[in-house]
Design brief:
Distance between the termini: 30 Å
CATH topology: Glutaredoxin
Oligomer: single chain
Number of domains: 1
Number of helices: 5
Order of helices and strands: HEEEHEHEEHH
Radius of gyration: 13 Å
CATH superfamily: Glutaredoxin
Strand order of the largest sheet: 4-1-5-6
Strand content: 15-25%
Largest sheet: 4 strands, mixed
CATH class: Alpha Beta
Length: 107
Protein backbone atom coordinates (compact mmCIF):
# COMPACT_ATOMS: atom_id res chain seq x y z
CA UNK A 1 0.00 0.00 0.00
CA UNK A 2 1.28 3.44 -0.87
CA UNK A 3 1.67 6.11 1.83
CA UNK A 4 -0.96 8.15 -0.05
CA UNK A 5 -3.50 5.31 0.14
CA UNK A 6 -2.76 4.77 3.83
CA UNK A 7 -3.26 8.47 4.51
CA UNK A 8 -6.58 8.46 2.61
CA UNK A 9 -7.78 5.45 4.60
CA UNK A 10 -6.78 6.98 7.93
CA UNK A 11 -8.50 10.25 7.05
CA UNK A 12 -11.74 8.48 6.07
CA UNK A 13 -11.71 6.31 9.19
CA UNK A 14 -10.88 9.14 11.59
CA UNK A 15 -13.24 11.75 10.11
CA UNK A 16 -16.34 9.54 10.32
CA UNK A 17 -17.78 8.03 13.51
CA UNK A 18 -19.00 5.03 11.50
CA UNK A 19 -17.19 4.21 8.26
CA UNK A 20 -18.04 1.26 6.03
CA UNK A 21 -15.80 0.09 3.20
CA UNK A 22 -18.14 -1.92 1.01
CA UNK A 23 -19.12 -2.99 -2.48
CA UNK A 24 -21.50 -0.30 -3.69
CA UNK A 25 -22.84 2.39 -1.37
CA UNK A 26 -25.49 2.72 1.31
CA UNK A 27 -28.15 3.54 -1.28
CA UNK A 28 -27.21 0.67 -3.59
CA UNK A 29 -25.15 -2.13 -2.01
CA UNK A 30 -23.55 -4.38 -4.62
CA UNK A 31 -23.33 -7.60 -2.58
CA UNK A 32 -25.36 -9.36 0.07
CA UNK A 33 -22.76 -8.95 2.81
CA UNK A 34 -22.53 -5.20 2.21
CA UNK A 35 -26.34 -5.04 2.18
CA UNK A 36 -26.48 -6.82 5.56
CA UNK A 37 -24.22 -4.17 7.10
CA UNK A 38 -26.25 -1.31 5.62
CA UNK A 39 -29.53 -2.82 6.85
CA UNK A 40 -28.18 -3.26 10.39
CA UNK A 41 -26.87 0.30 10.57
CA UNK A 42 -30.12 1.65 9.10
CA UNK A 43 -32.08 -0.34 11.70
CA UNK A 44 -30.00 1.31 14.44
CA UNK A 45 -30.83 4.68 12.88
CA UNK A 46 -27.30 6.00 13.05
CA UNK A 47 -25.47 8.17 10.53
CA UNK A 48 -22.69 6.40 8.68
CA UNK A 49 -20.53 6.91 5.62
CA UNK A 50 -19.55 4.42 2.96
CA UNK A 51 -16.77 4.04 0.43
CA UNK A 52 -17.36 1.92 -2.67
CA UNK A 53 -14.28 -0.28 -2.97
CA UNK A 54 -15.36 -1.32 -6.47
CA UNK A 55 -14.74 2.25 -7.65
CA UNK A 56 -11.17 2.43 -6.32
CA UNK A 57 -8.78 -0.53 -6.56
CA UNK A 58 -6.17 1.19 -4.34
CA UNK A 59 -8.70 1.52 -1.53
CA UNK A 60 -10.06 -1.98 -2.17
CA UNK A 61 -6.65 -3.59 -1.70
CA UNK A 62 -5.34 -1.04 0.79
CA UNK A 63 -8.15 -1.50 3.31
CA UNK A 64 -7.45 -5.24 3.44
CA UNK A 65 -3.81 -4.53 4.27
CA UNK A 66 -4.70 -1.74 6.69
CA UNK A 67 -6.95 -3.97 8.81
CA UNK A 68 -5.22 -7.30 8.12
CA UNK A 69 -8.71 -8.54 7.26
CA UNK A 70 -9.15 -10.23 3.87
CA UNK A 71 -12.80 -9.50 3.10
CA UNK A 72 -15.18 -6.66 2.31
CA UNK A 73 -17.25 -5.08 3.85
CA UNK A 74 -15.25 -3.64 6.70
CA UNK A 75 -16.80 -1.53 9.43
CA UNK A 76 -14.97 1.01 11.57
CA UNK A 77 -16.60 2.63 14.60
CA UNK A 78 -14.90 5.57 16.28
CA UNK A 79 -11.67 4.83 14.41
CA UNK A 80 -11.54 1.16 15.41
CA UNK A 81 -11.95 -1.82 13.09
CA UNK A 82 -14.98 -3.81 14.21
CA UNK A 83 -15.25 -6.46 11.50
CA UNK A 84 -17.32 -7.53 8.55
CA UNK A 85 -20.86 -8.69 7.95
CA UNK A 86 -20.83 -11.81 10.16
CA UNK A 87 -19.28 -10.00 13.12
CA UNK A 88 -21.71 -7.09 12.79
CA UNK A 89 -24.69 -9.48 12.71
CA UNK A 90 -23.40 -11.24 15.83
CA UNK A 91 -22.79 -7.96 17.71
CA UNK A 92 -26.21 -6.69 16.66
CA UNK A 93 -27.99 -9.83 17.85
CA UNK A 94 -26.21 -9.64 21.24
CA UNK A 95 -27.10 -5.95 21.63
CA UNK A 96 -23.42 -5.02 21.75
CA UNK A 97 -23.41 -3.09 18.48
CA UNK A 98 -26.05 -0.67 19.78
CA UNK A 99 -23.83 0.06 22.79
CA UNK A 100 -20.74 0.57 20.63
CA UNK A 101 -22.60 2.96 18.36
CA UNK A 102 -24.09 4.94 21.26
CA UNK A 103 -20.66 5.37 22.85
CA UNK A 104 -19.17 6.49 19.52
CA UNK A 105 -21.96 8.98 18.87
CA UNK A 106 -21.61 10.44 22.37
CA UNK A 107 -17.87 10.99 22.08
Amino acid sequence: MTPETQERLETLINQNKIMVFMKGNKLMPQCGFSNNVVQILNTLGVPFETVDVLADSDIRQGIKEYSSWPTIPQVYIDGQFVGGSDILIELYQKGELQEMVEVAMAS
